[in-house]
Specification:
TIM Barrel
Amino acid sequence: MERIDAHCHFWQPARGDYGWLETGGPELDPLRREFLPTELAALNSGRRVVLVQAAPSEAETHFLLGLAQTAPQIAGVVGWVDLTEPQAADRLAALARNPRFKGVRPMLQDIPDLDWINTAPASEAILALQALGLRFDALVKAQHLPALRRFAARYPELPLVIDHAAKPDLVNAIAQDWSENMADLARDERIHCKLSGLLTEMCPSRLSSPALALETLQPVVDQLLAWFGPRRLMWGSDWPVVTLAASHAFWEEVTDRLLEGMSDEDRDEVLGGTAARFYGLEPGVLQGGSHA
């Protein structure tokens, strides 16, 4: 089965709408440059990707859809729309005319109000997501999970995926409430989870070798697999953010070790099948190896 990267980013800082990148500390310096399709294609053998927004602006969504016109490896785009605007439903409908537009991601982790998702968006906008067959990427941390549970219950027909496994605390002990809330959300079979964004949550000392990273991540991945199963767990590189912790190749090696005890069928689901099904991606041809 084709291997698909379910979560990566391309950006041009000169566009001026990446506030988190502009105001962040010097640790973000390696990200303050252009990251575009050709560079990632050289790292991942040109395999297809789901491109996810990195700026809270519709202008960036149009920029990403423009990249998809000339970069065949972009199988889908998860963009951004101001869900609080009265015209949000119309804006979503206009974007959905582009078959590469697959859904939206409000940057919930950056919003001070933990319950924003239940109080701020117009209900018409969320209902439009459902009606248009679009998906919702939840960029959340452990403290947002109770609100996400309430949101998911209010909109039972909305396909939803939790980005980066809600960023569990991999430096200290993983909080019990993260485990309880993730397990509870996973009982809803329409809710999916991304195996991505975990290296940047780890203690740097655990990134000196794949073996050390594996020791930290294996218990977490085993839990995610027990809760969601391989048909609702999807792998993503989180490139280029992952490079703050380790290389793209390092994360691929760690991933292959994390999944090596699985059957070929289950591993194929995590590495591509789940993403293709969840995002409704058209069939494509893998240009690299099936587990490269």
